Design the sequence.
Protein backbone atom coordinates (compact mmCIF):
# COMPACT_ATOMS: atom_id res chain seq x y z
CA UNK A 1 0.00 0.00 0.00
CA UNK A 2 1.37 3.42 -0.96
CA UNK A 3 2.09 5.80 1.90
CA UNK A 4 0.76 9.33 1.77
CA UNK A 5 3.55 11.86 1.23
CA UNK A 6 4.82 13.96 4.11
CA UNK A 7 3.74 17.56 3.61
CA UNK A 8 6.35 20.16 4.54
CA UNK A 9 5.96 23.95 4.42
CA UNK A 10 8.53 26.73 4.47
CA UNK A 11 8.92 30.33 3.36
CA UNK A 12 11.77 32.57 2.24
CA UNK A 13 12.72 35.52 0.08
CA UNK A 14 15.53 35.95 -2.46
CA UNK A 15 18.14 36.38 0.28
CA UNK A 16 17.46 32.83 1.43
CA UNK A 17 17.09 31.21 -1.99
CA UNK A 18 20.27 29.18 -1.63
CA UNK A 19 19.25 28.03 1.85
CA UNK A 20 15.76 27.10 0.70
CA UNK A 21 17.16 25.14 -2.22
CA UNK A 22 19.66 23.40 0.07
CA UNK A 23 16.79 22.42 2.39
CA UNK A 24 14.86 20.99 -0.55
CA UNK A 25 17.86 19.01 -1.82
CA UNK A 26 18.43 17.55 1.66
CA UNK A 27 14.79 16.41 1.80
CA UNK A 28 15.08 14.92 -1.67
CA UNK A 29 18.11 13.01 -0.49
CA UNK A 30 16.80 11.74 2.86
CA UNK A 31 13.03 12.09 3.30
CA UNK A 32 10.35 9.56 2.43
CA UNK A 33 8.05 10.77 -0.41
CA UNK A 34 7.07 14.34 0.28
CA UNK A 35 5.55 17.58 -0.94
CA UNK A 36 7.32 20.82 -0.05
CA UNK A 37 5.04 23.88 -0.04
CA UNK A 38 7.02 27.11 -0.42
CA UNK A 39 5.57 30.53 0.33
CA UNK A 40 7.50 32.79 -2.06
CA UNK A 41 8.02 36.08 -0.24
CA UNK A 42 9.01 38.03 -3.36
CA UNK A 43 8.68 37.78 -7.13
CA UNK A 44 12.34 36.89 -7.68
CA UNK A 45 11.98 33.82 -5.50
CA UNK A 46 8.89 32.65 -7.34
CA UNK A 47 10.39 33.22 -10.80
CA UNK A 48 13.62 31.40 -9.99
CA UNK A 49 11.96 28.41 -8.35
CA UNK A 50 9.49 28.12 -11.22
CA UNK A 51 12.38 27.99 -13.68
CA UNK A 52 14.10 25.26 -11.66
CA UNK A 53 11.02 22.99 -11.99
CA UNK A 54 11.74 21.12 -8.77
CA UNK A 55 10.03 17.78 -8.27
CA UNK A 56 7.65 17.55 -5.28
CA UNK A 57 7.55 21.34 -4.81
CA UNK A 58 4.41 23.51 -4.78
CA UNK A 59 4.86 27.29 -4.98
CA UNK A 60 2.48 29.71 -3.28
CA UNK A 61 2.90 33.43 -4.11
CA UNK A 62 2.69 35.82 -1.17
CA UNK A 63 -0.12 37.67 -2.95
CA UNK A 64 -2.24 34.50 -2.91
CA UNK A 65 -1.92 34.19 0.85
CA UNK A 66 -2.68 37.89 1.32
CA UNK A 67 -5.84 37.57 -0.77
CA UNK A 68 -6.95 34.57 1.26
CA UNK A 69 -6.16 36.25 4.59
CA UNK A 70 -6.78 40.03 4.32
CA UNK A 71 -5.88 40.53 7.99
CA UNK A 72 -2.24 40.18 6.94
CA UNK A 73 -2.43 43.24 4.68
CA UNK A 74 -3.97 45.27 7.49
CA UNK A 75 -0.92 44.81 9.72
CA UNK A 76 1.75 44.75 7.00
CA UNK A 77 2.48 48.53 6.92
CA UNK A 78 3.41 48.57 10.61
CA UNK A 79 5.95 45.74 10.56
CA UNK A 80 9.51 45.33 9.42
CA UNK A 81 9.99 42.72 6.67
CA UNK A 82 11.23 40.00 9.03
CA UNK A 83 8.36 40.70 11.44
CA UNK A 84 5.86 40.44 8.61
CA UNK A 85 7.42 37.16 7.46
CA UNK A 86 7.00 35.76 10.98
CA UNK A 87 3.39 36.98 10.97
CA UNK A 88 2.74 35.13 7.71
CA UNK A 89 4.05 31.79 9.01
CA UNK A 90 1.01 30.50 10.96
CA UNK A 91 -1.37 32.09 8.44
CA UNK A 92 0.38 30.11 5.67
CA UNK A 93 0.03 26.83 7.55
CA UNK A 94 -3.64 27.48 8.27
CA UNK A 95 -4.19 28.38 4.59
CA UNK A 96 -2.67 25.09 3.40
CA UNK A 97 -4.71 22.97 5.78
CA UNK A 98 -7.84 24.88 4.81
CA UNK A 99 -7.25 24.47 1.08
CA UNK A 100 -6.01 20.87 0.96
CA UNK A 101 -8.11 18.36 2.86
CA UNK A 102 -5.75 15.51 1.92
CA UNK A 103 -3.09 16.89 4.27
CA UNK A 104 -3.42 14.94 7.52
CA UNK A 105 -0.47 16.65 9.21
CA UNK A 106 1.74 19.51 8.11
CA UNK A 107 5.37 20.05 9.10
CA UNK A 108 6.72 23.59 9.19
CA UNK A 109 10.46 23.95 8.49
CA UNK A 110 12.63 27.06 8.75
CA UNK A 111 14.43 27.57 5.46
CA UNK A 112 17.85 27.33 7.13
CA UNK A 113 17.34 23.73 8.26
CA UNK A 114 19.27 20.97 6.52
CA UNK A 115 18.67 17.22 6.81
CA UNK A 116 21.53 14.77 7.20
CA UNK A 117 19.44 11.59 7.55
CA UNK A 118 15.93 10.16 7.32
CA UNK A 119 13.44 12.23 9.38
CA UNK A 120 11.15 9.24 9.99
CA UNK A 121 12.11 9.03 13.73
CA UNK A 122 10.44 12.44 14.18
CA UNK A 123 7.12 10.99 13.09
CA UNK A 124 7.67 7.80 15.09
CA UNK A 125 7.82 9.98 18.21
CA UNK A 126 4.90 12.11 17.04
CA UNK A 127 2.67 9.05 16.69
CA UNK A 128 -0.99 10.09 16.82
CA UNK A 129 -0.22 13.45 18.43
CA UNK A 130 -1.80 16.72 17.42
CA UNK A 131 1.15 19.11 17.83
CA UNK A 132 4.90 18.54 17.85
CA UNK A 133 7.39 20.99 19.35
CA UNK A 134 11.14 21.09 19.71
CA UNK A 135 12.98 22.70 22.61
CA UNK A 136 15.95 25.04 22.33
CA UNK A 137 17.93 22.86 24.78
CA UNK A 138 20.37 25.74 25.19
CA UNK A 139 23.73 25.51 26.91
CA UNK A 140 24.06 27.58 30.11
CA UNK A 141 26.00 30.25 28.19
CA UNK A 142 23.35 30.37 25.48
CA UNK A 143 20.61 30.61 28.11
CA UNK A 144 22.25 33.67 29.60
CA UNK A 145 22.65 35.19 26.12
CA UNK A 146 19.02 34.58 25.11
CA UNK A 147 16.83 37.66 24.90
CA UNK A 148 13.48 35.95 25.30
CA UNK A 149 14.25 32.79 27.33
CA UNK A 150 11.69 31.01 25.11
CA UNK A 151 11.51 27.28 25.74
CA UNK A 152 10.60 26.23 22.20
CA UNK A 153 12.03 27.04 18.78
CA UNK A 154 9.87 27.60 15.71
CA UNK A 155 12.42 25.85 13.44
CA UNK A 156 10.35 22.67 13.12
CA UNK A 157 6.69 22.27 14.09
CA UNK A 158 4.04 19.69 13.20
CA UNK A 159 0.27 20.25 13.24
CA UNK A 160 -2.21 17.42 12.69
CA UNK A 161 -5.73 18.00 11.41
CA UNK A 162 -7.35 17.38 14.80
CA UNK A 163 -9.43 19.77 16.96
CA UNK A 164 -6.38 20.46 19.15
CA UNK A 165 -4.00 20.91 16.22
CA UNK A 166 -6.31 23.26 14.33
CA UNK A 167 -7.24 25.23 17.46
CA UNK A 168 -3.56 25.72 18.33
CA UNK A 169 -2.71 26.91 14.82
CA UNK A 170 -5.68 29.29 14.72
CA UNK A 171 -4.76 30.81 18.08
CA UNK A 172 -1.12 31.22 17.02
CA UNK A 173 -2.21 32.97 13.83
CA UNK A 174 -4.43 35.37 15.78
CA UNK A 175 -1.66 36.14 18.27
CA UNK A 176 0.86 36.87 15.51
CA UNK A 177 -1.56 39.13 13.66
CA UNK A 178 -2.23 41.02 16.87
CA UNK A 179 1.46 41.34 17.85
CA UNK A 180 4.61 40.01 16.16
CA UNK A 181 7.65 42.24 16.60
CA UNK A 182 11.39 41.72 16.95
CA UNK A 183 11.48 42.81 20.59
CA UNK A 184 10.87 41.21 23.95
CA UNK A 185 7.80 42.03 26.02
CA UNK A 186 6.24 40.03 28.86
CA UNK A 187 5.09 36.75 27.31
CA UNK A 188 5.91 37.87 23.78
CA UNK A 189 8.82 37.83 21.36
CA UNK A 190 8.24 37.62 17.62
CA UNK A 191 6.31 34.47 16.76
CA UNK A 192 8.18 32.20 19.20
CA UNK A 193 7.30 33.03 22.79
CA UNK A 194 3.67 32.11 22.12
CA UNK A 195 4.70 28.44 21.91
CA UNK A 196 5.66 28.16 25.57
CA UNK A 197 2.19 27.37 26.90
CA UNK A 198 1.13 24.90 24.21
CA UNK A 199 1.94 21.73 26.24
CA UNK A 200 -0.37 22.85 29.06
CA UNK A 201 -3.06 24.50 26.92
CA UNK A 202 -3.59 21.81 24.27
CA UNK A 203 -4.02 18.03 24.31
CA UNK A 204 -1.65 15.49 22.75
CA UNK A 205 1.40 17.76 22.43
CA UNK A 206 4.67 15.94 21.72
CA UNK A 207 7.97 17.50 22.76
CA UNK A 208 10.57 15.85 20.53
CA UNK A 209 13.34 14.10 22.47
CA UNK A 210 15.58 12.68 19.73
CA UNK A 211 19.07 14.14 20.22
CA UNK A 212 19.70 14.19 16.48
CA UNK A 213 16.85 16.65 15.87
CA UNK A 214 17.05 20.37 16.55
CA UNK A 215 20.82 20.69 16.71
CA UNK A 216 21.79 24.34 16.41
CA UNK A 217 24.49 26.84 17.45
CA UNK A 218 22.82 27.42 20.82
CA UNK A 219 23.03 23.77 21.91
CA UNK A 220 25.96 22.06 20.13
CA UNK A 221 28.03 22.52 23.28
CA UNK A 222 25.77 20.04 25.08
CA UNK A 223 26.76 17.09 22.91
CA UNK A 224 29.67 15.00 21.72
CA UNK A 225 29.86 14.48 17.95
CA UNK A 226 31.69 11.89 15.93
CA UNK A 227 31.71 10.81 12.30
CA UNK A 228 31.35 7.08 11.78
CA UNK A 229 30.52 4.98 8.71
CA UNK A 230 29.48 7.99 6.67
CA UNK A 231 27.18 9.62 9.23
CA UNK A 232 27.39 12.10 12.09
CA UNK A 233 26.48 10.76 15.52
CA UNK A 234 25.19 12.97 18.34
CA UNK A 235 25.81 11.17 21.64
CA UNK A 236 25.42 7.90 19.67
CA UNK A 237 22.20 8.98 17.90
CA UNK A 238 22.30 9.86 14.17
CA UNK A 239 22.10 13.52 13.28
CA UNK A 240 18.78 14.13 11.51
CA UNK A 241 18.85 17.86 10.89
CA UNK A 242 20.80 20.93 11.87
CA UNK A 243 19.47 24.48 12.18
CA UNK A 244 22.03 26.82 10.59
CA UNK A 245 20.73 29.91 12.39
CA UNK A 246 22.89 33.04 12.45
CA UNK A 247 25.10 31.74 9.66
CA UNK A 248 26.27 34.63 7.51
CA UNK A 249 27.70 34.49 4.02
CA UNK A 250 30.37 37.19 4.05
CA UNK A 251 31.73 36.44 0.57
CA UNK A 252 31.56 33.51 -1.81
CA UNK A 253 34.28 31.77 0.20
CA UNK A 254 34.10 33.31 3.70
CA UNK A 255 31.38 32.34 6.17
CA UNK A 256 30.64 33.29 9.77
CA UNK A 257 28.88 30.38 11.53
CA UNK A 258 27.79 32.42 14.55
CA UNK A 259 28.80 29.92 17.23
CA UNK A 260 30.86 32.50 19.11
CA UNK A 261 27.61 34.27 19.99
CA UNK A 262 26.81 31.35 22.30
CA UNK A 263 30.36 30.88 23.57
CA UNK A 264 31.22 27.76 21.56
CA UNK A 265 34.35 26.75 19.74
CA UNK A 266 33.59 24.53 16.77
CA UNK A 267 34.25 20.84 17.35
CA UNK A 268 36.22 19.22 14.55
CA UNK A 269 33.36 16.91 13.53
CA UNK A 270 30.89 19.79 13.58
CA UNK A 271 33.17 21.81 11.32
CA UNK A 272 34.13 19.16 8.77
CA UNK A 273 30.98 17.04 8.65
CA UNK A 274 28.17 19.51 9.40
CA UNK A 275 29.16 23.05 8.42
CA UNK A 276 31.49 22.40 5.50
CA UNK A 277 29.06 20.06 3.66
CA UNK A 278 26.28 22.61 4.15
CA UNK A 279 28.39 25.50 2.88
CA UNK A 280 29.35 23.51 -0.19
CA UNK A 281 25.64 22.77 -0.69
CA UNK A 282 24.91 26.51 -0.57
CA UNK A 283 27.54 27.12 -3.23
CA UNK A 284 26.09 24.36 -5.41
CA UNK A 285 22.62 25.88 -4.95
CA UNK A 286 23.96 29.25 -6.04
CA UNK A 287 25.26 27.73 -9.27
CA UNK A 288 21.87 26.15 -9.99
CA UNK A 289 20.11 29.46 -9.37
CA UNK A 290 22.46 31.40 -11.62
CA UNK A 291 22.09 28.67 -14.23
CA UNK A 292 18.42 29.58 -14.72
CA UNK A 293 19.09 33.32 -14.70
CA UNK A 294 18.32 33.83 -11.02
CA UNK A 295 20.18 36.01 -8.56
CA UNK A 296 22.36 34.29 -5.95
CA UNK A 297 24.34 37.13 -4.31
CA UNK A 298 27.81 36.39 -2.97
CA UNK A 299 26.87 37.77 0.46
CA UNK A 300 23.65 38.14 2.34
CA UNK A 301 21.82 39.55 5.32
CA UNK A 302 19.78 37.58 7.79
CA UNK A 303 16.19 36.67 7.16
CA UNK A 304 15.56 35.76 10.79
CA UNK A 305 17.17 38.77 12.43
CA UNK A 306 18.88 42.01 11.58
CA UNK A 307 21.93 42.23 9.39
CA UNK A 308 25.25 42.61 11.21
CA UNK A 309 28.54 43.96 9.93
CA UNK A 310 31.70 41.87 10.19
CA UNK A 311 34.24 43.88 12.15
CA UNK A 312 37.94 43.92 11.22
CA UNK A 313 38.73 42.74 14.76
CA UNK A 314 36.48 39.70 14.37
CA UNK A 315 38.21 38.88 11.10
CA UNK A 316 41.44 38.42 13.03
CA UNK A 317 39.96 35.52 14.98
CA UNK A 318 40.16 32.78 12.34
CA UNK A 319 38.33 30.32 14.60
CA UNK A 320 35.23 32.49 14.28
CA UNK A 321 35.12 32.11 10.49
CA UNK A 322 35.17 29.34 7.92
CA UNK A 323 37.02 29.67 4.65
CA UNK A 324 35.65 27.25 2.08
CA UNK A 325 37.10 26.88 -1.41
CA UNK A 326 36.40 24.29 -4.10
CA UNK A 327 39.08 22.00 -2.73
CA UNK A 328 39.31 22.55 1.02
CA UNK A 329 38.08 24.21 4.19
CA UNK A 330 40.38 25.97 6.65
Sequence:
Amino acid sequence: MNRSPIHYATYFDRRYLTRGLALYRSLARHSPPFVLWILCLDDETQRTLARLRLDSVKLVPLAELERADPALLEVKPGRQPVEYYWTCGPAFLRHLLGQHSRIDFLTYLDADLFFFSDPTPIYDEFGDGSILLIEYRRTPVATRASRSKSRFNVGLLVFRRTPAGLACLERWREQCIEWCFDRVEPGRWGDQKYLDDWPTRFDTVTVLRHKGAGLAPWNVGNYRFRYELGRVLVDREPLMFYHFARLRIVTGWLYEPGLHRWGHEMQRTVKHHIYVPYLRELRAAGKLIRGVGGDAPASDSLLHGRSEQVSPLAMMWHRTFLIVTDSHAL
